[in-house]
């Protein structure tokens, strides 16, 4: 059951992503060879009348692609005598730009829609940065924090809601003391150095308990979806920055095996499945916009360089750089997958 659910979630996210590229490519008049969900050997395919595109499902469900003329296989383009005006690199700058970012945009839309549906069905819970129900045996309370105070900073980083608090706590080494800045009802700030308490299971807690408000209705659901999207996107920016600065290591990354484990934990709750799918969709959209070769963001970077220099980059050069980037990405995927498998035992 977990495997089926994992494949459905990943399949929907990949399909929505590639559909974005496909729709904008077709609108721009680009020749599309193939619309594929998955990689590796072909499992199923079909074609439509008066449509050059082959639609395929392949064996390895860890991604997908839309193969366009003028993108990578330039020799195939020449062999099939694809008209020059139907090749990607001969389209206008804006047409190519929208083709490149459409996949990520679709993922963001899917994430927001799922969060909105979740809010409509189950209601919304918004957790602020206002403290409520602080355990009296924790250092946070013992140092003077009280219900009604706001947590405005964690280790010097601004916090506007509980999502921010969770994100910054996730960057702290387990068991480390943290700096918490609180603001009382009079606007007076106080800085506290808070040590965590270790529970019976060996987990560390700082005793930061906040006010949670529940609402139902169309408007609260819409507000929840947008606010949660912003929070998830912001947390990913923080994580990427932390990876580059060395605050987080490669052990903090997860691949398909890690995602499978999370799906296994969420499979008995439709609410959790909706949230997980939304979260992963936003995550994949975000990752694809990173300006790294083989990602959509890498292709957008080429477009920006082209705009600055005032002339097009050679399609062959772009194809070579993207191929190298793809190989590096596969190596990283293998390393992360080995790490995830090791963590299972």
What does this structure look like?
The protein has helices at residues 2-27, 74-79, 93-122, 139-142, 162-170, 218-245, 256-266, 270-288, 296-309, 315-343, and strands spanning 32-47, 54-68, 124-131, 150-154, 157-158, 178-183, 189-194, 197-198, 204-205, 210-215. By secondary structure, the protein is of the alpha+beta class. Helix 1 (2-27) crosses helix 7 (256-266). The protein folds into two domains: 2-120 and 278-343, no CATH class; 121-253, Pdz3 Domain (Roll), CATH 2.30.42. A hairpin with a 5-residue loop joins strand 8 (197-198) and strand 9 (204-205). Helix content is 51%, strand content 20%. The strands form four sheets. A four-stranded antiparallel β-sheet has the order 5-4-6-7, with helices on one face. The protein has a two-stranded antiparallel ribbon with strand order 1-2.
Properties at a glance:
345 residues, alpha+beta, Pdz3 Domain, 4-stranded antiparallel sheet, two-stranded antiparallel ribbon, 10 helices
Query: What fraction strand?
Result: 15-25%
Secondary structure tally: strands: 10
State the helical fraction.
Answer: 40-55%
Mean pLDDT, all residues: 87
Order of helices and strands: HEEHHEHEEHEEEEEHHHHH
Largest sheet entry: 4 strands, antiparallel
The separation of the N and C termini measures: 21 Å
Strand order of the largest sheet: 5-4-6-7
Q: What class would the helix/strand composition place it in?
A: alpha+beta
Low-pLDDT runs: none
Shape: elongated
Report Rg. Answer: 24 Å
Separate helix tally: 10
Number of domains: 2
């Amino acid at each position: 059951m977990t495997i089926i659910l994992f494949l459905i979630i990943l399949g929907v996210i990949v399909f929505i992503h590639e559909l974005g590229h496909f729709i904008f490519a077709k609108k721009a008049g680009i020749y599309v060879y193939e619309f594929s969900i998955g990689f590796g050997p072909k499992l199923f395919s079909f074609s439509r009348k008066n449509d050059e595109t082959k639609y395929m499902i392949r064996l390895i469900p860890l991604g997908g692609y839309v193969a366009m003329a003028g993108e990578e296989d330039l020799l195939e383009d020449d062999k099939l005598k694809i008209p020059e005006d139907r090749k990607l690199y001969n389209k206008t700058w804006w047409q190519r730009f929208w083709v490149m970012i459409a996949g990520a945009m679709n993922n963001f839309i899917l994430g927001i829609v799922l969060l909105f549906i979740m809010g409509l069905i189950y209601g919304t819970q918004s957790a602020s940065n206002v403290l409520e129900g602080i355990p009296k045996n924790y250092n946070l309370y013992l140092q003077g924090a009280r219900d009604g105070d706001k947590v405005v900073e964690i280790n010097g980083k601004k916090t506007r809601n509980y999502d921010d608090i969770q994100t910054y706590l996730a960057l702290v080494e387990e068991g480390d003391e943290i700096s918490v800045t609180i603001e009382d009802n009079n606007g007076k700030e106080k800085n506290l150095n808070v040590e965590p308490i270790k529970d019976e299971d060996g987990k560390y807690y700082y005793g930061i308990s906040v006010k949670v408000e529940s609402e139902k209705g169309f408007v609260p659901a819409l507000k929840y979806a947008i606010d949660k999207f912003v929070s998830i996107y912001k947390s990913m920016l923080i994580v990427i920055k932390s990876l580059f600065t060395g605050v987080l290591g490669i052990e903090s990354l997860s691949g398909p095996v890690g995602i499978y484990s999370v799906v296994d934990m969420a499979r008995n709750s439709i609410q959790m499945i909706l949230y997980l799918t939304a979260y992963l969709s936003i995550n994949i959209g975000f990752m694809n916009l990173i300006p790294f070769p083989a990602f959509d963001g890498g292709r957008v970077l080429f477009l920006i360089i082209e705009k600055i220099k005032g002339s097009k980059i050679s399609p062959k050069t772009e194809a070579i750089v993207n191929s190298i980037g793809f190989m590096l990405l596969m190596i990283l995927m293998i390393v992360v997958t080995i790490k995830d498998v090791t963590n299972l035992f």
